[in-house]
């Protein structure tokens, strides 16, 4: 398999769920880097606003109104991409929805809808992207957005966690099959930690108070940088946020202990105590256009994620820090 990933300023990138949160942050960052964009979401008004914003800043974007759960509607993406830009080089399966509810109380139609969007949306997008890349000289990058919940479940977002486990299994199996085939497709799974997006405001809520993302919370721009790095450099998977990586390692090392810890703490930290709202985007699009949570966008930097993207620079910084520490220690010793 020989994949030739282009610099961002020579790429056309498809982003699903492009009107809010991680998708919107990624679209803005990609446009700033010179990439052409195909923006996909259900909210036509928000799509036009994002497209206009990008064009006003000198970028190049078109949009497609489509529900990723609908394979036939999704097929419009290829037609628009071909007509506007002659195809695409990177496909980002980002669209997702959530429900805060205990599993035994979750209505089955809502449970199914989670899978229709979060899992089947990834399947539909991946099939479309792979068929396109098989025919495109140099192939391209398929980037699926999972979650740290692809590795460890948490209460109240239990069904959401199940969809992200499914995304991980699908993505990793697809990577194996494409490698065996020799298809020119770089497949990446991105696993964000808690991110400061409007996810809790868009999720359907069955709790007795307004939900929130469990801390620590990182800014969506950190995820955007990881996605765009994978668009140019073949990466198997990346966890965004050192806290999420530590949680995954703890869950693998002591699953029974983590079951009890998460079971006790997560039902508490995911509640704000404020009165709950019932507006959501589970079946219909909600108000979009914001990358950040109304409660704040989260910490803007992750040393762990930087080190994953730039291991040589990270080692150099560690070595420099060690050298400076040694020099200061030696100087202090001479003064004594």
Radius of gyration based on Cα positions: 21 Å
Structural class estimated from helices and strands: alpha/beta
CATH topology of the largest domain: Rossmann fold
Tell me the total number of β-strands.
9
> DSSP strand (E) fraction?
5-15%
- Tally of DSSP helical segments: 12
Largest sheet: 7 strands, parallel
Identify the strand order in the major beta sheet. Answer: 3-2-1-4-6-7-9
Average pLDDT taken over every residue: 91
> What number of structural domains do the residues give?
2
Overall morphology: globular
- Architecture of the largest domain in CATH? 3-Layer(aba) Sandwich
N-to-C order of helices and strands: EHEHEHHEEHEHEHEHEHHHH
CATH superfamily of the largest domain: NAD(P)-binding Rossmann-like Domain
Structure summary:
The protein has 336 residues and is of the alpha/beta class. Helix content is 50%, strand content 13%.
Describe this structure in words.
This protein has 336 residues and is an alpha/beta fold. The chain contains twelve helices and nine strands. It has two domains: 8-301, Rossmann fold, CATH 3.40.50.720; 311-336. Strands 3-2-1-4-6-7-9 form a seven-stranded parallel beta sheet, sandwiched between helices. Helix 9 packs across helix 10 (255-269) and helix 11 (303-309) crosses helix 12 (311-335).
Q: What descriptors fit this protein?
A:
50% helix, single chain, Rossmann fold, globular, two-stranded parallel sheet, 336 residues, 7-stranded parallel beta sheet, alpha/beta, 2 domains
């Amino acid at each position: 398999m020989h994949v030739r990933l282009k610099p961002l300023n020579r790429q056309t990138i498809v982003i699903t769920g492009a009107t809010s949160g991680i998708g919107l942050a990624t679209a803005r960052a990609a446009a700033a880097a010179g990439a052409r964009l195909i923006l996909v979401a259900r909210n036509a008004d928000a799509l036009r606003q994002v497209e206009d914003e990008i064009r006003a800043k000198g970028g190049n974007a078109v949009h497609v109104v489509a529900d990723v759960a609908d394979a036939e509607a999704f097929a419009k993406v290829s037609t628009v991409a071909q007509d506007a830009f002659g195809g695409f080089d990177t496909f980002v399966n980002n669209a997702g929805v959530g429900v805060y509810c205990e599993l035994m109380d979750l209505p089955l139609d809502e449970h199914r809808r989670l899978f229709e969007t979060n899992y089947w949306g990834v399947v539909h997008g991946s099939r479309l992207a792979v068929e396109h890349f098989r025919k495109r000289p140099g192939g391209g990058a398929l980037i699926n957005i999972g979650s740290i919940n692809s590795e460890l479940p948490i209460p109240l977002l239990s069904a959401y966690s199940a969809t992200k486990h499914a995304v991980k299994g699908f993505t990793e199996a697809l990577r194996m099959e494409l490698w065996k085939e020799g298809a020119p497709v770089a497949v990446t799974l991105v696993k964000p930690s808690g991110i400061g997006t409007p996810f809790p405001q868009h999720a359907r809520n069955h709790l007795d108070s307004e939900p929130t993302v469990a801390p620590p919370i990182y800014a969506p721009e950190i995820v955007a940088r990881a996605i765009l790095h994978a668009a140019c450099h073949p990466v198997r998977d990346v966890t965004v946020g050192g806290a999420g990586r530590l949680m995954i390692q703890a869950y693998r090392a002591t699953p029974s202990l983590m079951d009890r810890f998460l079971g006790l703490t997560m039902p508490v930290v995911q509640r704000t105590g404020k009165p709950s709202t019932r507006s959501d985007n589970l079946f219909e699009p909600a108000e979009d256009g914001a990358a950040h949570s109304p409660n704040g966008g989260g910490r803007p930097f992750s040393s762990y994620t930087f080190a994953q993207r730039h291991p040589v620079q990270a080692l150099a910084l560690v070595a420099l820090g060690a050298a400076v520490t040694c020099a200061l220690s030696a100087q202090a010793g001479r003064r004594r």
